[in-house]
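Sample intake sheet
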Amino acid sequence: MNALDTIVARTEQCSDTTQLKQLHDEVAFLLSSLSFSFYSIFDVYDALCMCHDALMKQALLLAEREVDRQGIGKKPSSFCWFVMGSSGRKEPTVWTDQDNGVIFSCLHSEKDDCYIYMREYARIGVLFLNEIGYPYCPGYVMATNERWLKEVGEWHEQIEKYVTNEHIDDIRYLSMLADMRPIYGEYALANQLKTTLYKKIAATVSLRSRMIDSVRIPFVPIGPFGRVYVERWGENSGMLDIKQGGYVQLNHVLKWVAVQKQFVHAYSTFERLTRWYDEHGCSQQQFERIEKALQTFLYFRLRCSLEESDLSIQHLSKEEKQRLKKAMIVAKKMQRHARKWV
């Protein structure tokens, strides 16, 4: 992992997005030549996450300097960029797309001018992130979308609406925000917002059934006799989407457990599992089975990312197939018993 640690240090010396993109390419090359296993996968993701964080921070610093140079609007007294999705959970693949937002604080009399500054900052920040290898989010979950760029008070108002309204997308937005992790700026702004979010969700009894319903989809593609359902037609025939094949279902259950138990600063799925076990939420046997399943999903997910394809079941060894099936069964059982834990 020493080579990846070196990249983290080198990002601070980059003065433009071209140099940062070269480092991002180097991360991909190093990982493709790295020998990693199921048992070392957590350490690999930790190192990879540190590289992504360093690259994104430097890109956002360069963007901030550019907006300051332009002299547009008024810079707020404090702001914070945060990431969501796999980056928020410290489980990014090599070429992860953008899932980000911004929260800022300012005087009420300066809010309009601060919005002018922050919208331009969001535009340039998202552009720079794209230029260094983080594609635009196809679902537009980015700071350039007004849904994900707000002043502190307006963020709290928005969360209140998500919690109390009955709109079909509210649970999806709450789920995204539950993974939020600050990466640049005044971290306390994002941490305070996340703490409020977790408290409001846990205190709203009517949300529980909707949270459980959200955990039950998508279906884990494995039958009662251990048959894995793969894509039957087209260029992906015989392939499995590992993200939808158990990983998403497992992390969704543990995410809502973390919210209910107020594990605000447990970011990764493994950190959430560990906190849950430490507080006697599951037995040692359950912990070990879920840990092994998570290692399996993360291992195959990173491998697929490097190969830029879904998982080919027929090319797996006998031991890999057995491990994958066991992991999928664990994820399926967690879905089934979600009501007991969430």
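Comment: The beta strands are 78-83, 100-105, 149-151, 181-185, 239-240, 311-312. The two ends are 36 Å apart (CA to CA).
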